[in-house]
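Q: A small favour: would you put together sequence and structure tokens for a protein?
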Amino acid sequence: MGEGYHSDASYAEPSLFPFGDNYVLYNYVQKNGSSYHYVYNNENRYTANLPVQIYYTEWLPGGLGYQDRTGFITSVGNSGFGYTTVNTTTNKSTITFYDNGALRWNKVIQQSGNPWHIERTSVIGGSYGCRWRESSTFENATLFKDFVVVSDTHDGAGTQTLLLNRNTGAVECTIPLAYAWNDSNNLFLQKRADDGNGIMLYVYNQLQGLKYVCQVIQDHSWDSTFVNHVVSVTDGAQYPDYDAKRDAIIQLSKADHLNVSGITPSTGSTAAQITDIALNGNGGWWIQTNNNMSVPLGELAAKIIQQVNDVKGADNVVLVNQPVELKSEYKDSENDPASIMNWSFTHDSSKLGDLLISNSMGVSALHGTTPTVPPTSFDKAGTYRVKCKAKDSPVTSVSYMADAKAGAKWSSDAAELIIIAHRKPVAAFTVTATATMHNGFSVTDQSYDPDLVNTDPAGKKGIRNWEWQYRNSSLNEDWISSAVAPTTFNSKGTFIIRLRVQDVHGAWSDWSAQHVFSIVNSKPIAVFDAVPNPVLVNGVCTLFDYSYDMDGDALTDWEWTIQGVGTLNKVNSDPFTVSWSAVGDYLVTLKVKDSEGTWSDPVSQVVSVIVNNKPVARFTLPVDGYTGEMFTADGSASYDPDPEDTLDMSYWQFKKPGGEWSGVITQYLGDSGYLHFNQTPSATELGTWYIRLVVVDNHGLESDPVEHSIEIKEGFEVSGYIIPVVGERGRNMIVVAYAHTPAGEKFQISSMSAYIVHPTKPDGSAALPNGQTPQVVNMVYDAATTTYRYTFLVPNKVQAGRWPDDGTYYIRVVGLKNTTSKETLLPATIKGHIQERLYIKTRSW
């Protein structure tokens, strides 16, 4: 059957298309518009009828022809095929997949909101659709590891390749790269190079994800006697299924004694994820990826080699009685065969290389012997020097035998090997039989190396590494490993613990005998506080519970025994109040029970019930006060008659002349200036002031108020003058100053000082020579004149334009009354020197 032709006389145009190995597509298009597309398998059985649309009608010479369009169809592997249909009204595409002749699944894809459905104009079957691989023709689409490959990289901006589950159609993996090609084991994807020049090609032969790493581990038979490694190489920023598969891969690594390593970028989460798996599993490493993969692979190889060496030890170190194989390589320049091989052994039973042996096993039976067959083990610990030489068996002839040098020859004994034979270390320890999760458990390590127990230069009895393992057999837990002995546990039950140790030469001991011990429930800890304590008679005391359980068990019962009240059983830790009606010391005891039924030890506290005496307020005031001058009420003499009480607060009030009491000013113990109250009356606040104080003790009891008064008088000013008005160098001048009320009434104050002279002149220029400071003097009070006086001698000139050169200066006078100071500047004029004054006497005198 061949492809039909267009003609007005042809009622049918059949066509036949084989595709894949097992299917054939038969198209039958009728002139009236009907179209049938049937799929048959290689057993000639009908499999499916594909949906068809009329593509267009066309007038042709000789008649009217029809063409149809059907969804893009392709075979997948040998036993599957699929096709795409498009609904141009809803913009939905549907992929339908058959496998082994049966419908497996339909995958509906909608353009809106779906990143891998994009418009296509070259897909057979419609202007919208989803490409199967990268072709518009009938052909095979090879499976990749049993996944159906779907590509959206044609005529669109969203470049992605999807792997669909062959059985369900579910999207198993989305890779943001354009499809290139694939076979059953390799998937080739591409994208434009980062610099915009050329194409970067990516090849996947194993999908990136812990799911697939788990599959690799499960598909392989691991031998726990070997050093096993599985390596995941990925360029992804994270394992997308890390949360779902982390615990599974850790358990697999422990079960198979398998190291899990990763070669990944340092950015993203993959490095941390691989490190986490290695630390919590059986071991492994994270290694930085590189454009040149020989770099990380070389690093991985070095790590594996180091690990193997750590396990097996160096080649020239063996265990006593360990099976060994000594080999020699024989060569002869004449190709004569060897007739005999002699081995010689020298044994030093006192050393292991450079280390002294603690407990010698004696000299080996091999010492001093020359066997022709090498031994298969070494019977005593020590250092062996092994030499080997061979004797040839020459091929003889008459002429050869006539030679004076004819005969068999021995090789030199230069072939030499130093072998260290040592004994396995011994792992041993003792433990306490019973402990709690957090304390009481102790381990005494008794491990040793019999060869170095007393001669180890590091003082560790020849041991270098410890591997402790323990597990809760009650919960059937896996072994937990640690380099140090456990001291605390996260569960209760019957535990098993064992130990193995490694010696200087890298040999591990056998596992020690297993010790069984019990981790029992810890007692809860009872803790409480009574506030306040002491408490007043009939006062309220609140009991606060702070009990806890070190195992994290819930507390279920609280038993309070309160002297004078009784026993109270509670089922929660809520605070509650108690009170006592009589003075005394009352014992309060608490014990608590946890959810395991264990009671704590009782804990007690004495609550003192007291009668509180009122505190006493006392304060003092100055005799008089003055306007503009601060005065202080000193309440530091206040006290509480109860020896243990403190004054925690004070309340101050004041009343100005003709006014009402002020609001309360509160001070607290510890405040700066506590129990001191300062006021500064203004010029309009003359008269009697009243000050009141109340103090409060630590129980909140207030004192009776105490009240004092102070008479506020008018403030003062400082005035004065200089005698004489114009002074001379070499002559005395008198500074006169006095304190007076604004009305002019003079009176005595605390002190009066003079600064001779003020550092600057009236015009602001310097008055004193460089380096000089004013002379500060205390003026003397003259009761007769109610003034303060000071006489000083005007010195000689030091520097032109500076005191005491000719000119006008100022002398500063400061008056102090109690804590208030007032001051004034007095002008002083200097003219000439007294010794330079010229007197002329005339006849008229």
